[in-house]
Structures are given as C-alpha cells and as structure tokens.
Design brief:
Shape: globular
Structural class: alpha/beta
Number of strands: 25
Strand content: 25-35%
Number of helices: 12
Radius of gyration: 22 Å
Largest sheet: 8 strands, mixed
Length: 422
Amino acid sequence: MGQGLIIAAPSSGAGKTTVTLALLRHLKRQGVDVRGAKSGPDYIDPRFHEAACGAPCFNLDAWAMRPDRLRDLASGAGHLVIEGAMGLFDGAPPDGKGAVADLARLFDISVILVVEAGRMAGSVAALVQGFANHDAQVRVAGVILNNVGSDRHAAMLRGAMEGTGLPVLATLRRDPHLAHPARHLGLVQAMERPDLDPFLDRAADALADSLDNAAILGMFESLPDAACGPTLPPPAQVIAIAQDAAFAFAYPHLLRDWREAGAEIKTFSPLANEPAPQADLIFLPGGYPELHAGRLAANETFVNSLRNASEQSEIYGECGGYMVLGDGLIDADGTHHAMAGLLRLETSFANRRLHLGYRDLIPLGGPFQTPLKAHEFHYATTLKTAGATLFDAKTAEGTDLPPMGLRSGRVSGSFAHVIDAA
C-alpha cells in the first residue's frame, strides 16, 4: 500500500510547484520510490512532476472525479506527493467542491502548508494557525516557508512559529533562479525548457539545505486501497492523437483508460508535418497552436491528411485542436492564419478574454455518448461560428450556458477539455 501527503498553500503564487518539484527530485536522489500527482485540471505541472522523479503523474480532480476514481488514481506503491491548486480550501462555486482540502478529507492524509513568507515575520503564526484550525478533518502537519530573505529572517519566522505547535520543515531562500518562465495558461511546458534538469537539481539542493528530512518522511500516511468504478469508454477502437508542443494537453488517465479497454493509441506530430495516421478517430488535444499557427498553416502534409481523413474517420478537437479545425486563427500579433477549414470557426488572440470554469456537458453528437465532466480555460475570442453545436453545457453552479462547440459531418470540437465521465 502506498503512502501520501499533500503540498498546499494559502493561495496561488506561494511556491507550491517549486517546493513540490524540489521535494520530488530530492527524494528521488535519496533512492525513495516517489511519484507526484496534481490536484485539479492542469496539463503543465504534471509533466514537471514526471521530469522531477521519473514516474507517471495523474491529475486528481475532486470536482470532476468520483471518490472511487480518485482512490484508484492515487493508489500504488511508494510515496505519493500531491500538489494542490490555488489555496487549500479554494474550489468551484457555489460550495468550494474540488478544493485540495477535499482530497485531504477523502484520503485522510496530512497537508504541508507552503507559505510565501517574503513580506512577513510574526504574522506567519496567525496565518498558519488560521489554516490549521479551520477544518478539523484537514490536518496541517507542518510548514515550509518560501522566499525567506536571510538567516535573520528565517530565525524570526521560526521563532514566531514556535507557539503554533507545527514544525517548520524547511526555509527556502529567495532565489530568482528558481522562478519559472510562464505564459498565459501557466508555466512554459516542461518539454520547452532545455535547462530543466539543472533547474530541478538546483531546486532540490535549495530545499535540502534546510529540510528536516526525517520529519517529512514521517508525515507520509497510508493511502486508501484502489476501488475504481466505471471509467470513460474509448470514443473509438483506433485513436490517433496529435502530440507535440502545440498539442500537449491530453489527460494521461483517459489514455490509460482507453488502452486498458482495448483501444489502440497512435501518436503523430503536426509540428513535424506528419500526416494523421489511419484511425477511427483523430484527436487534436489542446495546447498552444497560436504560438505555432504559421508553421501549422504551412504544414500541408498534416492539413491535407485531416481533410482527407474527414471523409472516412471522425475528427475531434479540444480547445487548441478545435481552433485548428476551424477556418482561421488570428495570433496575438494580429496575423491571420488559414487553418484546416473543417469547421466554420474563426478565432483570435489579438483581443484576449479569459474563459474559465468547470463544465457539465451533454453530447449532441461527436465521439462521446455519455454525460461528461470538463473544464474550459482559454483566452481566445470567437469571431465567427456557424453550424450544429456539439454540447449542451452548464457551469459548476448548474447555470445553463449557450451550447458549446461545433460539428459538421464527421468533424467536431469545442473549447471544453473532457476530464471524465459524469
């Protein structure tokens, strides 16, 4: 039976990802059997987890996934480090469902709170005590203080924490070299960082300088046994998935489900101008096609393979993949790029607007047949759209949204990212 703990914080921007990656790399270098998981909908951080420790990383989404699904994905040998999202108690409206605190309650494991302490001293005790006492079912077992300025600052923080009864497990010093380059959807992808291994080693070294190694290893607690119920059935028998820096947002748990159900998964790279392989379904996941729009538009072998495949195979696009299936995409510089032209859709990044939130979806066609849990996160503006819609949609609060996506013949897509069966 595996053991786990949770890395959480009072808010976004506290340094959870840096601390999680540092801990994963540090434990891996010590010979500990360790793996990571990420709370909530996130495609980018899990790939950093995998680079840090060399083990697959799944998402654990307490809003979109059933408890038995979460237990199954968390199960396994060794030590599991779960990185939270946003603040410890921050979830979807109206009731906060999906917060990392839900995972702490479900798995009954401890939380280590990462505090951005760069601009505080004695107040750290009040902040930590507030989080530790907020919910008796959520055990805050220790604290890692991030962005500490000096030995004197560290001593002041540790002194303030003495009265809380909670141990300070590490004081991570302020270091501009540990900042992550970011773009509008989060961090620059792991595959795009040539300095990734040196960065991970530097982070591990920085954490190890003050880490109470024995104490943190002692905070891992037994995870519940696996108990997986129904999963999302494969949308086709043979599935070809675009996979490169422009199309990187495919959830590993869904690909695992489909393989285990007997589906054959093929991959190809549109950026390398590879044609879509012969398949029952061609899946273009989300990613960053807007950063590569000119190159994709010029890759005639890829684009023509989509047009030819649409005559006998289903084609489905999510978010970035959906935009590539449209008529055109305007990048952030205002340049128009012709896309595959399989859906009547024009999108633009010249005037960005955030679209964000969980979605309940009812398919009206396309490759999926059952109600779905999904999320939407993009900055693209839709300029023109025409045709039959793909999903009826609601927000996390249950409010009706306009129907989402488009379908035309065998081609369909939307801005929603499917997480799991409802």
